[in-house]
Each structure stands twice: as structure tokens, then as C-alpha cells.
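Follow-up to my earlier ticket, as requested here are the two runs.
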Amino acid sequence: MSLRPVSAVVFDLDGTLCYYGVSVAEAIGESLRRAGEPHDRLGDLDVAAERFDALWGEVEPEDGSVRALQEGMWACLLAEHGITDLPFARRCASIYVQIRSPSITLFDGARELLLELRQTYRVGLLTNGPSDMQWPKIEWLEIASLFDTIVVAGDVGIHKPDGRVFEILLELLKVTAQEAVYVGNSMPIDIVGAKGVGMQAVWVNGRDAHAPAEAPTAVPDAELASVDALQEVLP
């Protein structure tokens, strides 16, 4: 399956170009242990991790910071298991970040792919998430210089799949939607959002892929097992 010719390639970040070596479940268990509770205090860690991920969209921090958000998520998760100790929640949140953040790494071949694409295409990055969480990742991975344009949703207050954030990225890249392809791992966020504004879309259906719970409302133009295979479908 090949794409029609484009002049720009735009990427999602988390789960597409990079991943955490320490899973959410592993980080929750180790955070509890270091904070003085049994690692399985919240029961099945995979179930706890699934709930923790869901809380990203449910908790609204008072000051809008990632620190407050994660503390709120921990407070909610613990409260659902009968632990209402806010200082303990804050301690777990701090430990969690110390455990998981340094484990972020690029997928094999991702850096080489970006370097090669820059020789032919304009290359962009469009990532959801708060500014004070996404920019430190970009700096840690040392990839900012590999993109012509970077848009962090937290900077503009609009998040994928809202088409407006894709349009902001396209305007900065100085290309039309028809001249660009978006590459992401989330069907409901990346593929739906990109197709909604008229971009071609490539779904990276690998280890961190997010598929819709129901029938997809958009169909990707290509599907890959890993991002380093992208050039196989580019014209």
C-alpha cells in the first residue's frame, strides 16, 4: 500500500517515535513499594494502570501543571482503593515520575528515519499533552533539531483529534493538507484527526497502538508494524 506524493511528513510523538521502557503498571507497583505500601496494594497492576491512563482525561489540576495533574491522578486512584492520604499520593506521584521519565527512548530506527526524511520532505511533530510534560521529552530525546516545525497541543490549547491543531501545524509548515501525511499510533486521535482535515494518514499499529473500541470512523491510507518501515509506503 503506497501513498500519493507528499511534500511534508508529520509525526505523533508518544507511542509512534518513542516509548517508555518502564510500563505504567511497573511504575505504579514500584512507586507503591518505595512509598511503603505493598506493590499490589491496588490489586491487579494492569487494571490499575488502565485506570491510571483513563484519569488523564478526568482530572483537572488546579494550576494546570503536570505535577498537579499527576498528584490528582494518584489521589483519585488511591481513593478508589480506600487510601485518602494526600501527602502519600503526592509522594507516590513524585516517585512515579522519577521511575518512569528517564526510561523514555526512541524506537529503533526512528532517529535515522527522521534524518533521512529531512533530505526530501519538510518534517513536523504534532503531539498532544501539557507543555511542561512534552517539551522535556523532546529535549531529553534530543530530537528538536530533526523537525522543521513542532506543535505541542498544550501550547495552543487545542488537542488532537480537533482538526484546528492539525491546521496550525500545516500553516507553520507552509503546506496544504493534501501535501502532507500524518503518522501516528492512535486510530481515534491521530488517524481520525488527520483524515478529518484531508491529510493522508499512516497508522503505526505496533506495541503501543491505540485502536478504537468500536468500528473506526476513519480508514488509514497505510498501516505499519513499526515507524522505521515508513519509507516502504512513501512514494
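Run two:
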Amino acid sequence: MKFKKALLAAFFLCSLPLLARNQMHNRHYKIAVCDWMMLKRQKVGSFELVKELKGDGVEMDMGGLGKRDSFDNKLRQPHFQKLFKDKSKEYKVAIASIAMSAFYGQSFVGRSNYQELVQDCLNTMKVMNVKIAFLPLGVGGDLIKHPEMRLELVRRLKLIGDMAVKQHCVIGIETSLDAQGEVSLLKEINSAGIKIYYNFQNALESGRNLYDELRILGKNRICQIHCTDTDGVLLADNKRLDLHEVKKTLDDMGWRGWLVIERSRDKNDIHNVKKNFGSNIIYLKDLFQK
């Protein structure tokens, strides 16, 4: 019976016109933008701006942290929860993920209240109906510079990963390791709640082959992708990032999900939000969705 169903499904797919099959395939990719990079961190105007720029979604940040004990998070308040959900619906702009970007400049290992911080993020994800969180392992979490942190980092990531599993969510971590190193790290963590949030910039800056890295990680270890390079030129002008090859690689892997624009701003016009993010959105949508 299973074989018969599979045969019928294959026949149906093959009978579709080529254009229709391509349209089905390209629905695998959606394009989002980091709200904090658009200067819209936890601002309701991010939805209208992304709609204007033709994007599909927003990666919403948890808010700043600094020396505070908790994130500067508006979304603990029912008023803001309703407001953000209403605007998301009004502009048909989804929330792709919730980011803890403060950990770019904070030590995840050095924070004694890391569980409370992550729980705040998980609570926000639940109320906003979001399934993926972003956790960069920045200062203090660089396992190449600080290998002595590995045991404690693995312990903490295992713990918060299991917290995420209970809520049917995933926390995507960004590391400084190469792909094989990330595979080994995930095996050590051994939690279905921790996956890799892959960032093209890290591989490019380190001189690694990001297409090979994507294949090594495989579709099931990558929960989301920051689909940009460091600031300098727009994506369409980037000579060291072949996004046609990226798409071919992801297609071959069978990966699907959100491609999130973080950087790749024109260094000569870096503060022009609409130009930088609008141009990058259009380029990615033309390549990945048409």
C-alpha cells in the first residue's frame, strides 16, 4: 500500500508542468530581515517596513541586555503581544524567529541567570507562535579561542535544548567552528532542541567552502540561515558569495526554511536601510522564489 501511494505521488508530480513544479519547489524558501539591523528592534513599525520592502518576515529581537539582569523585552506585556500579532497579520509579514542578539556581546557561559534569559525567550516564542530562536555564541563562547569553555558550554546548551524540546521549539546556535566541528558539538550536546543557525559570513571570513559546509551539516542540523556576508557590498555585487550555487546546494539537500538578511550593506551608504535591505530582499526573492 505504501509503495502504491508513493508511486501515485511520483506520477502526479511528474505530470505537473515544469513551471508548476518549480513554483512548488521555490515555496521552500522565505526571506526575512533582522529587525535590529533595520534599526527596528522590537518596534512594531518593522512589519510595515518589511512589507514595503517586499519581504516575507521579520527576525524579531528579544531586546538589549547590557548590564541588566533581563532583556529589554516589550513582549512580556499583553498589550504589546496583541499589537505585534495584529500588525503581523495586517501586513501579512510573519515572525520568522526570535533572536537573542545581545549574546553577540555577552558571555553565555558567564551569565549565571542564563536559564531565566532563555526561558524569557521561550515564553515570548510561545505567545507569538514562533518555533525557532537564535542564540549567537559570541564573547566567551568562541570555542576556538576558548576551548576551556567547552564542557560548561555543552552542559548549558544541553539544558536549554531540553527546555526548548518541552515547548516543541528549537534554539539555533551560531558558532565559530567549521561544519565538522559543529557536527561534533551537536553530538556532544545531544538534544533535539539545539540545531545550527548557519551564517554565511563566518565561513567566508574564515576562508571555508560554505557549500561543502552546508552539505556536511545536512538539512536536519540547520534550522535557519543568515543569508548574508559582512558589510561591504550588496548581495547582488558580492563576488565571493555565489548564491546560485547556494540555491543549488540547498535544493540538492532538500532543505527548506527562512533565509534571513542580517548584513551585506553597501559600505558607502551603510545607513540607508531601505536601499540596503530592499535591494537584498529583491535579489534573494528573484533568485530563490521565481
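The only thing I checked on run two: The beta strands are 29-34, 57-61, 94-99, 132-136, 170-174, 194-199, 222-226, 257-261. Let me know what else you need.
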